[in-house]
Structures are given as structure tokens and as C-alpha cells.
Amino acid sequence: MCFPSFANGPMRRSVMILAKRRRVTVVVLIMLSSLPLLSYNFIPISHDYFFSYLRTADFISVSDGLYPNRSWVPFYWRTDIFSRPDKPRILFWTTVFGEWYSGLSASGTAELRYWHPFGGCADHCYIANDRRTLPVSDAVVFYACDLNASDLPSYRAEGQKWVLWSLEAPTTCDPSPLVSVEDAFNWTMTYRRDSDVVDAYAKVTQRSKPTSYSLERLEQTWRNKKVTAVWAVSHCSTFGKRENYVNELRRHMSVDVYGKCGNFSCSRDVRFACYQMFERKYFFILSFENTICRDYVTEKLYLALLYDIIPVTFGGADYQDVAPPGSYIDALQFKTPKDLADYLREVSENFVLYKSFFEWKGRDESDGSQLPTTRPTGLRSQQLDGSGGIELIDQEAMLRPAVWRT
């Protein structure tokens, strides 16, 4: 727009004032329109995010197929407006059993958070649950049990990965929504060892320096133990029929049952105090899974490995792949519950044999101390104090298609 030139008149001053007000109005409108984006500022990254949004907002329809989109840049090639290396942006499209993961706002308000629960990990990322961040997210995560097939995004940015996540056995939730959308996902992230990204409740790692394990303290603990085994359980009827096995086992040895299915109680809110009591009183703890599924191992095993008590496993995993050799007893390696009971009795009465199940502790350690106090969020949505943060499992994608199935 052109204005007539007035060297010193009131018209020129009026035009200048109007032009200034117009500029201010434009700036205010821009700022107001960007408030939802600026509200992602959990740490000072709002400007980075705003300009990244403008730069990478292009997308294409999933129904049209995925074709090269030159405007999209992988995070490892991306920089922010200050030329700093960018970080992956992960959008949680669904809740996890009705709760937002890792402290994201339950109200669904826009947040872009710097993800910090993973302690000293080399790689970090941003997470959000506001769906407006879809066009600029590097990955979109869908929890299998919360998935609604009619509530998937209508488009996917080129290069964006859709991740189907589950830490639960297929029997825990209805897998039928996956039937119609199984081809929508790029990666799976589950406990299965053939997943694209292998996830787990915890892991056992080799110590950087071997330590001496106090056999004297262990022997004193062993002498004070009075009851053969303990079982803490909240689901009394399961697909794996572990309850039937335990009922038969109790005919041949003493097993104290805690929780909804037994006569003893210890609050899950003080789970670690419960385990401290268990190791003082019992020789063994039954780490029985509710479903016999390949590779399925929950926190029961990893928690037990933190204490001077021997876990007895019951599940479909190859336990030598997830626990140190000689650290557990696999119930399914015995022909009958009676055979298991006879062996447990033998181990409990012989300290030389009993202590052999703890020799691994000088070499390895379990990071189960960082497990959540409660499920079903599973992957550590509530962190506990302990010796360091939960570490990321080695999550190099194997880049082969897989779908979470029964």
C-alpha cells in the first residue's frame, strides 16, 4: 500500500501511528496464534519448536501411500534455529490403560516435555500427548490395550514411524482392533524378542566392577528364614492356570499367599518393604506369570533378584536370556509340582546349595529398584528413588515388519 507524502503534517503522523498499530496488531496476532505451541515449554525450547513446526509441517495422506516428501528431515539431521542438534519428538496418541505416560497432563493440554526418566542415557527426546504435534513428530506411539481402530490419525508425515507398544500379554486386552489396522504400524515395541524395538520392565546388566557378595550376611539371613515359599498375587483366575499349579504345590510344601487370593496382606504401595520382609522370612518367592506366552516376563522376576530370596519362575520365556544363570529355578523344568517341592526343600536345607543361587550377584545386578510401585503402566510412569535411573534397553530397531499378535 502507498501513502501520499506529507513532510510535516498531522496526516503523516496519523499514518505513522496507524502503521505502527498495524504492526503491533500483526505481532500480537502471531503471538496469540502461537500460544498453543509456546505452551509446550517444559524446558526453554518453545522457539525451537515453533520454527521447527513451520519448517516441517508438511504431511501426506496415509491412504495415498507414502511418497518422498523433501520437506521432512530426520531428527538426526535436523538442527534448531540456534543450529543445535535436534532431538526426537515422540507423540503418545493413546493413554496406557487410561493414564498418560510419564507424567503427561491428564487434561490433554499441549505439552512438549523433555524426557528425563532415563538417568544417564546418552540419548534424550521430547514427548507430547497433544495431537496438534502430529505433523512434527518423528514417532507416534499407540498402546495396544488402549487402541481404538477408528481413532487413528488421518495422515502420516513421510518418514514418521508409527509404533505399536505393549508390555502386556495378548490375553490382557482385546486384540481385535488390530485386525483392521495391522498394516498401519511401522514398528512394534513389546517384550517379544522378535519385536522391532525390544522393551522390558527391567534388565540385568554386568557390573562394571565385580564386587564381593557377603556370604556371611546371606548365611545369617538363611538361618532366620522359616517358611519355604511366598506368593504375592492379585489375580486369582488366570489364563496360565498358575493358581492350579500352586494349589497342587501347597499339598507338598508350605506356601504363604499374600494379596487378594490369600490370607496374608502387604500393600503394593510399599512393595519394597514387602520384599524386604519376604527375604527375611522365606527361602523362595513364586514369580509366576498369569499367562504362558513366549518371552513374557514381568516385574515379578526383576524385583525378586534384588533381594536374598530365590525366584521360582513359571512362564513362557527362555529365562536364561533374561536372568543370570543360576539365579532362579524354573518350575516348568520339573515334571510335577511335587518334584519341584522336593527340590525346593533340598535347596532350603542345604546352605552350600542355597548360596550357589546368589553367586551371580558379584558379577551382575538387576535394575528392578527403579520399577514402578504399581501396574499397569508398566514402563515406569511413576519413578522411585534408587541407585540411578532406569536405563533404556538396547533399542536398535531390527527394521523388519512385525505385528503384535496372540
Automatic annotation (TrEMBL):
A Pfam family per the record: Glyco_transf_10
Assigned EC number: 2.4.1.-
Pathway: Protein modification; protein glycosylation
Alphabetically ordered keywords of this record: Glycoprotein, Glycosyltransferase, Golgi apparatus, Membrane, Signal-anchor, Transferase, Transmembrane, Transmembrane helix
Residue ranges of domain Fucosyltransferase N-terminal in the record: 87-201
Gene3D superfamilies for the chain: Glycosyl transferase family 10, C-terminal domain (3.40.50.11660)
Locations listed in the record: Golgi apparatus, Golgi stack membrane
Annotated region (Disordered), positions in chain: 363-385
Residue ranges of every copy of the Fucosyltransferase C-terminal domain listed in the record: 222-363
Annotated membrane topology: Single-pass type II membrane protein
GO CC annotation, single: Golgi cisterna membrane
Biased composition (Polar residues): 368-385
Top-level taxonomic group: Eukaryota
InterPro entries: Glyco_tran_10_C (IPR055270), Glyco_tran_10_N (IPR031481), Glyco_trans_10 (IPR001503), GT10-like_C_sf (IPR038577)
UniProt family annotation: Belongs to the glycosyltransferase 10 family.
Record-given protein name: Fucosyltransferase
